[in-house]
Amino acid sequence: MAIELKMPALSPTMEEGTLAKWLVKEGDSVKSGDILAEIETDKATMEFEAIDEGTIGQILVAEGTDNVKVGTVIATIAGEGEEASSSPVRTEPVEAPSLPSTPPEEKTGPSTSSGQTEERVEKPAATERASDPAIPAGTAMVKLTVREALRDAMAEEMRADDRVFVMGEEVAEYQGAYKVTQGLLDEFGARRVIDTPITEYGFAGLGAGAAMGGLKPVIEFMTFNFAMQAIDHIINSAAKTNYMSGGQMRCPIVFRGPNGAASRVGAQHSQNFAPWYASVPGLIVISPYDAADAKGLMKAAIRSEDPVVFLENELLYGRSFDVPDLPDHVLPIGKARIMREGSDVTIVSYSIGVGLALEAADSLAGEGIDAEVIDLRTLRPLDTATVLASLKKTNHLVVVEEGWPICSIASELAMVAMEQGFDDLDAPVVRVCNEDVPLPYAANLEKAALVDTPRVIAAVKAVLNRG
Amino acid sequence: MPETDRRPASNLQPLSLHIPEPRYRPGDTPDFGDIVVPAVDATPRPGEATKPDAMRDLCYGLVRVLDFDGQAKGQWDPKLSPERLRTMLRYMMLVRAFDDRMFRAQRQGKTSFYMKCTGEEATSVASTMALDRGDMCFPSYRQQGILIARDYPLIQMMNQIYSNRGDHLLGRQLPIMYSAPEHGFFSVSGNLATQYPQAVGWAMASASKGDSRIATVWCGEGSSAEGDFHSALTFATVYNAPVIFNVVNNQWAISSFSGFAGGERTTFAARAVGYGIAGLRVDGNDPLAVYAATQWAADRARTNSGPTLIEHFTYRSEGHSTSDDPSAYRPADEASAWPFGDPIVRLRQHLETLGEWDGERHEAQRAELEDLVKTTQKQSEKLGILGHGMHQPFETMFQDVFEDMPWHLKEQCAQMLAEQEAKFGPDWKPE
Asked: What is the dihedral of CA A242, A243, A244, A250, to 10 degrees?
């Protein structure tokens, strides 16, 4: 039987990569440990080795192909005594022969489940989202990843204002641990793109001091898990500067970095701190879903005179969305966005949960349920007016949050709905959150612990009593 | 708001900052000729009870035992028996064989992540061998040599890396984040330097109970910048805690060179001076020097003479982890230009010089250890590899969050199991 070689995950967070180079060709015999291909991830170029012995049957993904999803079959190996070229045809008579001639950009592994999930998540955002009233009608769009959008936002603000600088671990020479600061060192130099010693406590404090001294720091935490030791500066210094100085001083600083669960990085690296920061007076907390919001809100965050905690999501960095092709795309802080209009139920979320909500809404539409999806975008100040207006229309509220349920944004919204929208509620508010446990590493447990689309669908049906 | 473009009214020179930059980048020819390598017998060995202020020079010198011809010399020579030296060599070779195999397993997609310690084997193996088995080690993430030197079962390490059915951490932790308290190996933490104050706390608890066990802890030179490092040293000096601090200065913290932690200004051992504790700077590629320094520090701690900070001067020969590609930020041949060689080669050479080892035995041992690792790997893979099947039953996810499972987790668990049964039937089990 032919052995399928699948695109490997060469780092815990890799979802796709570039098949840079094949080091073997069809018909070559290989043994365990031979290097088969060079694969580029967002972090590095790595060599992919053979596990099994045999002959390379067909190479199904050509070298130079970008965005190959993890799990895509990239080649086959025929075991001993098999005809190398015929085996894939035998196992997959219809699909296999046509694959090698497929143009690279379409070769995203149509038969893999991970590829499908990925596409389903992106599709509603790209095609069906309601237009953002903050963007002029008829604005041309460009496709950008969230990673590029964040970088562009920082670069534009750095060009416009010499006071803006970026500081953090590995942000300069290495271009950021997740490559969000790509190209910034080249353009702005070491005075404004600063690699730091490994001490979040130290550079968060330094950033607060520089902000009080009149600069506009953008502080990158490699992940917000590591910001835990810096939280004193964020909460006890940055958030209270204006208030404690009797309004004389400001701390215009942005603390940014990935937040929430990534993939298989375990309990200490997979946590959503949004509700923590959102509970603190004096802080602005932003947590965007798509690239347009990431860009527009990052620019607004840098311009803000208030300290901003800007919570990104590692799994969203590589996803592409339409971004307005405007010279200065800035969005208002504190405004939620209706991502999809609907009349039966309101699904509210933020960050990666918005993708799940949109996917659920798509699926529910097929069953005659018309869901409205709201992306909060800013968590403090919270745009309760948009949520309450939607609730008035749909009379049902479900909150989706990739995070723990207790003392969450979801529980806050449930309280808002009860206090200010009680008469509009036809059913109790339901929250769809992660399991109330530290996030396990093992793939099956991790999957079981995190929110997903089926859970959102089930919750909506329960709220509408349409089991 | 303050105006930043305001210039001083006087004609004083404007202030400026220094941005550290490593001397060599990809394409450059590295030359470490200016690194001072003191003679093997140049560094005196003070008594274990010596007051820190009488031994400050040791923070700026280099404890060495093996010269580059394989001879052991000087006051620091621990004079280990040939049998003990062979054991040390074997452990280091096993670490390397294990690293090579598991790195390749990651490249074959069998696990998501791995970290090698190539070139740094002595800093954990020789150090651990100088301790008592009951002493508690607080590792960073590159100290697999501790487990190997304490004869921890290889298969348990592999099961953890594969997160398979045999993983006694139940699929909850990242690969290589071992936890083996019964082997005196505290759980690896993914957050840097958190182990430092915890090791001091453990050591103080040991003293408070009147126990005789000491604690020892590792971090990299990069994470010596963390606040935790400095808090730990403060507490250790205030309470004279029985603890050994190891800073493995392998020159690189991912792509940030040691200059970003202050290495351009002084040594890492010299951090001890400001805190008033003993400091030793050691050739980290010389297993006998590492052993001797650790033994000195352990004796000191065990006799209530105080804590010691040991800087292991070494070089990270490979990438930071399987997610890193060092050719992007440093010359590919920098490791081979490192003036202190390779710890395994140096110990082998010493044993051969003594007439206690030869090329044939070395090759045979290398093959035997590679075989051992391979065989163990096969056994481990029978219990599963990452991403193939459901190795951990669902209910394990809710266990150990608290001592007693609270009612809401019991409910969640029951609900999940009911869904599982509805989907797959009552007899379904994870493969």
From this structure: 0
Same structural domain, B75 and B207: yes
Residues B195, B231: Cα–Cα separation, whole Å = 11
Name the strands in the sheet holding A35-40, side by side, starting at the edge strand that comes first in the sequence: A45-49, A35-40, A16-22, A65-69
Taking an 8 Å cut-off on Cβ atoms, the answer to whether B256 and A198 are in contact is: yes
C-alpha A462, offset from chain centre:
28
Query: Which chain A residue lies closest to B17 (C-alpha atoms)?
Result: A191
Q: Is B95 helix (H, G, I), strand (E, B) or coil?
A: helix
Beta carbons of B387 and A443 less than 8 Å apart: yes
Q: Check CB contact under 8 Å for A51 and B108.
A: yes
Best to test chain A binding among B103, B191, B323 (most A CBs inside 10 Å): B323
Structural domain of B56:
52-321+336-381
Q: Are residues B299 and B420 in the same domain?
A: no
Residue of A nearest to B20 (CA): A195
Give the integer Cα–Cα distance in Å for A197 and A169.
7
Answer yes or no: is B430 within a domain: no
CA distance A117 to chain B (A): 17
What residues of chain B lie within 8 A of the CB of A9, using their CB?
109, 112, 387
CA B342 – CA B123 distance, rounded (Å)? 12
Render each residue's pLDDT in chain A as its tens digit; 467 residues: 577 888 887 776 677 888 888 989 888 888 877 888 888 876 677 788 887 788 888 888 988 888 888 888 898 888 655 444 433 333 333 333 333 333 333 333 333 333 333 333 333 343 445 677 778 888 999 999 999 999 999 999 999 999 999 999 999 999 999 999 999 999 999 999 999 999 999 999 999 989 998 999 999 999 999 999 999 999 999 999 999 888 888 999 999 999 999 888 888 999 999 999 999 999 999 999 999 999 999 999 999 999 999 999 999 999 999 999 999 999 999 999 999 999 999 999 999 999 999 999 999 999 999 999 999 999 999 999 999 999 999 999 999 999 999 999 999 999 999 999 999 999 999 999 999 999 999 888 999 999 999 999 999 999 999 87
Does A10 contact B322 at a Cβ distance shorter than 8 Å? yes
Same-domain check for residues B233 and B263: yes
Catalytic residue numbers of A? 200, 269
Of the partner residues A11, A252, A441, the one whose CB lies closest to the CB of residue B163: A441
Q: How many domains does chain B have?
A: 2
Taking the CA atoms of residue B53, residue B57, residue B63 and residue B65 in that order, the dihedral angle to the nearest 10 degrees is -100
Residue B236 included in any domain: yes
Query: Across the interface, do A198 and B225 touch by the CB < 8 Å criterion?
Result: yes
Q: Which of A174, A197, A214 is nearest residue B255 as measured by Cβ atoms?
A: A174
Residues B414 and B342 in one domain: no
Give ipTM to 2 decimals.
0.75
Same domain, B270 and B412: no
Are B100 and B185 contained in the same domain? yes
CATH of the domain at B56: 3.40.50.970
Flag whether B414 is in a domain: yes
B 198-237 residues with CB < 8 A to A:
222-223, 225-228
Residues 322-341, chain B, touching A (beta carbon < 8 A): 322-325, 328-329
State whether B305 and B400 are in the same domain.
Answer: no
Give the SS3 label for residue B383.
Answer: coil
> Are residues B340 and B420 both part of a single domain?
no
Return the structure tokens found at B287.
């297993």
Distance between CA A198 and CA A97 in Å, rounded?
52
pTM of the model: 0.81
Does residue B328 lie within any of the structural domains?
no
CA distance B164 to B250: 32
Contact between A444 and B171 using a beta-carbon 8 Å cutoff: yes
Q: How far apart, in whole angstroms, are the C-alpha atoms of residue A49 and residue A163? A: 48
Q: Tell if the CB–CB gap between A445 and B394 is shorter than 8 Å.
A: yes
| Cβ contacts of A52 on chain B, cutoff 8 Å | none
